Amino acid sequence: MTNKDETPTRLCILHLEDSEQDHLLVTRELSKAPDPPEIRRVETLSEFARELASNPFNLVLADYRLPGFTALDAWQLMQKEKYQVPFILLSGAIGETAAVEAIKAGISDYLPKSDLVKLRHVIQRAVEMQKIRAAKERSDFELFQSEQRLASFAQHLQATIEQERAAIAREIHDDIGGSLAAVRFDLSWIERHNSDPTTISHIRAATEMLQYAVDASQRIMMNLRPAILDQGLIPAIHWLINDFAKRTKIETTIRAPGQLDSLPKAIQLVAYRTAQEALTNIAKHAQCTLVKIDLSGDENVLTLEISDNGRGASELDLSKAQSFGIRGLKERAKTIGGWMDVSSQVGAGLAITLSVPLTEAEKIRQEQQLNDPSNFV
């Protein structure tokens, strides 16, 4: 038996026709072509199904009314068995209603038997259209596969980045943090055992610079690895906006539930990074006086919205090739099955909304435990 997806090199037509005379007329007309096609005639639905299953065809020609069934029955059989070849009605007057019904069902074309002179052109057009559709389906499938590979790569890359951030944060804490603490103890010892005013003045200046370095290292560690997420997403968001308001002097409000049920670390991290990136963009570009954060969650969806009353952005600004921040957030959301929306008008502020279905939270948690045993967050 020949595979139904196989395509014959020579044009091969299956003719569903109960009239031998009409079949001969079709054969005669098509024999005028430079490379006449092969034509096989069947009369019954069972013969039609048998031929489709055992031989590859480029095209089906079918009369509309046949003994005990119609061409639509044959078309439905092809759809059920997933035969993707053009199907042309070649019939007498079937009425406008029947013709429209057939075209709506997906049949390629309709030609009255009185217009056989047009048959070769109709067949050529149907075959070409089928080739175009097949090429588009292949392209769409290849594009889908490419997008899937890209999404998997983006997810892997993001996980790798977070792991590297966590490793760097640990090194800063263990090495640099330990060294700075040791220097602080030594400066304190020197200050206690020295009475020279000039020396003490330098020691205190050095201590102030040391405190600046300690604060900077702690800030870098928090940006690299938000350890506060260990306490939950809500405390982490509160810490983030408090730090933002302190640094920028921009009024910031938050509305959030008292607590959220345990969320997978992957979801917490994406929500935290979304808020972090949004606040960074606001500080750089928004020129606003007010920022609002709305965090809500139920058993179905976690929603995080960050909005401001700044200058906003146009569609052109948001679609620029250099808008990697927004694209990065959207790709992050996809890694946990969520999505991100951006709404803005010039002069009317900007709002970023992250939505994450929680129906598969347990699945995400299990996948993270399987793929990320180090639990880097």
Which terms would index this structure?
alpha/beta; 55% helix; single chain; 5-stranded mixed β-sheet; 5-stranded parallel β-sheet; 377 residues; Heat Shock Protein 90
Which superfamily, in CATH terms, is the homologous superfamily of the largest domain?
Histidine kinase-like ATPase, C-terminal domain
Structural class of the helix and strand makeup? alpha/beta
Q: H/E series, N to C? A: EHEHEEEHEHEHHHEHEEHHEEH
User: Sheet with the most strands?
Assistant: 5 strands, parallel
Share of residues in helices:
55-70%
**Low-pLDDT windows of residues:** 373-377
Radius of gyration: 35 Å
Q: Can you list the strand order of the major beta sheet? A: 2-1-3-6-7
Distance between the termini: 57 Å
Query: What is the 3D form?
Result: elongated
Assigned CATH architecture of the largest domain: 2-Layer Sandwich
Number of helices: 11
Strand content: 15-25%
CATH class of the largest domain: Alpha Beta
Integer count of domains? 2
What assembly state would you assign to the polypeptide chains in this entry? single chain
Query: What is the number of strand segments?
Result: 12
- Mean pLDDT reading: 85
CATH topology of the largest domain, by name, is: Heat Shock Protein 90
